[in-house]
Amino acid sequence: MSADRDVTTRIVRSWLHEDAHEDADRILNLVLDEIDTTPQRRANWLARRFPPMNSNVVRFALVAAVVVLVAVVGFQYLGNANTGDPVPSETSQPSTTPVASGEPSAPADGSLPVGSSHILWDQSQDGATPNLGIKITVTIPASGWFGDAKEGTLGKNGNVNAPDGAGLIVFARTNDLLVGSGDVYVYGDPCHWASTKPDSPVTTLDEAMAALSAQTSRDASTPVDFTHDGYAGKYINLHVPDDAVFSDCDEGQFRTFVQGDDAPRYAQDPGQFDLLRVLDVNGQLVIFDVTHYAGTPESVLDELSAIVESATLEYAP
Hints:
By secondary structure, the protein is an alpha+beta fold. It contains five helices and 13 strands.
């Protein structure tokens, strides 16, 4: 990092919200020692916000209900059918279904397997021409993380809301051929964003940090330089005011920025912290938004840090 240690200390302590985490210094030292640290798909997401509940959780609940129903019906059937002497099975053999080695098996609750390589974002078109995308892969360090492959979001235990939720959301270049589709516009006022969208997008790290730092009511930290996977970046910590009233904002949304015309990033709840890690990937801005609250457990912050640090980026020009 090119910034001095005191500046970094203030930023990381702000990120961890030290008054809510007794062991913040231990995490602080880990972050200070790191050298290399470091979007929902536009077609499917009209607003870049975490889904209220991960679809895997819903699927698991439905499957569980079916399993219970089948078990009840089966029990009733067997209870009525087995009225005579039991008949020994001619092929009574123990189950020996082999378990494949390699990639960890998926947990029953539909969460991502611990230690698995999860494709967080992928618009690379698998080598198709023209190939204009960025592929981002992360490693899942602990149980309870949910996210659909390639969609650009992760959430802890299906909860990204106040007071103790946590998640990660990514905005990156897509394979959309429309001019300006990947441009990022930082609003001047996140509550009254409709009238404060700038005429020009941010195109460099310095422009992005200047615009984010100037955004009203965000209590922005001082930007800090870092590198990740060989790419230069800057990070900044933003805060949604605890007393923010979203219903008073344009369309009820507290927005930070918008990518193109249809992918805005807006907050979940008042009191939200957003650690924005912005990378310059061959002239394209890639934004990692690490979201948490004052009540987010320290262990979850550790896991979030590990996920971001594990990210690998593949760029297709």
